[in-house]
Amino acid sequence: MIDTLDPIPPGNIWAIDPSERVPIPFYLSTVQAGFPNPAENFLRQRLNLQDLCVQHPDATYFVEAAGESMIEDYIYPGSILVVDAALLVESGKIIVCWVNGACTVKRFVRYGKLVVLFPSNAHYTPLYIHPETDQFLVLGVVVRIVSKPPRWDSDQLKTAQDYVRTHRRE
Amino acid sequence: MYVSCERSFNPSLNGKPVIALGNNDHCVIARSQEAKNVGIKMGQPLFQIRELIEQHQVQICSSNFELYGDLSSRLMSLLTNFADHVEPYSIDEAFVQIDTSFEGIYPSYQGLGSAMRDTVAQWLRLPICVGFGLTKTLAKVANKCAKTRPELEGVCVINSLESANEALSDFKIKDLWGVGSRYAAMLKKNGIETALQLRDVGDIDWVRDRMTVNGVRMVYELRGYPCRLLEINAPPKKTICTAMSFGQLIPDLKNITDALTTYLARCCEKLRRQESLARHVTVFLHTNPNRKTPGNGLPAKQYSASRSIRLPHHTNHLPDFLRYAIPVVENLLQLGYNYQKVGIILNDIVPESFRQQGVFSDWPDEKALQIGKTIDRLNHRYGRDKVRLASQLYQPDWSQVQGSLSQAYTTDWKQILKAS
């Protein structure tokens, strides 16, 4: 038969003397079990692309780029341009505008009365706008460009693999 | 406004006559000044003006309410940059309360108006007119003057007795805010033809007798005492209605119940947006009253009917409404007619916090209300009607005809402007 009662060793038995009582303060506030989260004091809103790109929500438009005329300014076909219509159009800025009804993205340069739209691709020529004869209307200034990184085709991938193969340490 | 929105994203329409069509491309709902000049009238059916359109190369747009709605909300939000209190009055009108605090920033009301005009023109490429007045009615008068008198350059200020006298003396009574055709005829018969005459009417009780207290308010407003205050937080709607005509005439019950379901879904979305519940449903349907029988050209047989029911409880849950609305439409429908329109009107609208349990029903069901909100959020993120009842058809026969719809430039990633 198993003895279910653990015998208490005599050393653990104490006589209580009420005169030596020490009062222990009782705290009414609750105590959280577990380790407090020190990051809680530093919680902030998560970052948001909208806050970074859009300064004037009412005046901001998104425009998709097409064609390769602005490729040296990192504007590729399919890039999304964030266009702010509230900003001042100054020479040297990239703008989205309509020229005789066609929507285009170019660098804006004012030369006297003449407006010239510069592409950033050596294969394209600047566009001259004559204020009297051409219909010209600005949508706004490009403030951000959103693009996907270009994909490698199989040749580029192969070149990279070849490079690794030839430069591998034996 | 609609034509200006189309021009905002398609400047090649500038300077050309442009019309916007509504209601399945059947009739004209907006015209550019050039289109007005060639004699196209508001509400005219398209088939009546085919020759005019060809003769003057009139450009046609189907109404793109997604675009108009977004530009409208941008406009209203932009106006809050100029003043704290903005009351959107309609899709293209707003009342703005200008406090004296702006005085240091803008030299004059004229200057403030021009700044508003220029900002809207640059940000949204929309032409606007600004009218200043001591009261809403005077502001409306000033706005009308700014619109019709080109020498004012779109800004009209009524801030003194002289300017008020000048503006009101040749302001026709029928153009006054709140005066309909009946009041205009009545006033004309009594010798009042301009707004000035109405303002200086000697006997205010005479106005009260003829035009109720609203007429008295109008007179006081013209005199410069504000009676209509700015309504900044619009009260929730008391009635919600969805009734669109079909793209083609529909004879069968299946398509009609489907349209009914879709319209009810729209109504429920509207209810939830203003956090309300409704209890009273009216369903109506009718045939095309202008239709001729194809064979002999005689007027076709007509049928129209409507019925209202009261639900046992308030709700904004689509299946609850459907349980009652579908039998109603089944009951109303007479076979053998080609229907043009089915519509829904919701009444007896109360706030969502309204909790009065019925005697025999245990409603409103919290779970159902919660599901509605979740469905709204899903559809907001993934596109309209992505989550819908199984009884709704995906590509129905009755959808609206919009032949020359422009893109939703600001509300759909797939339809944004392209620049080369």
From TrEMBL, chain A:
Pfam families: Peptidase_S24. Residues 25-143 form the Peptidase S24/S26A/S26B/S26C domain. This is DNA repair protein. It comes from Spirosoma endbachense.
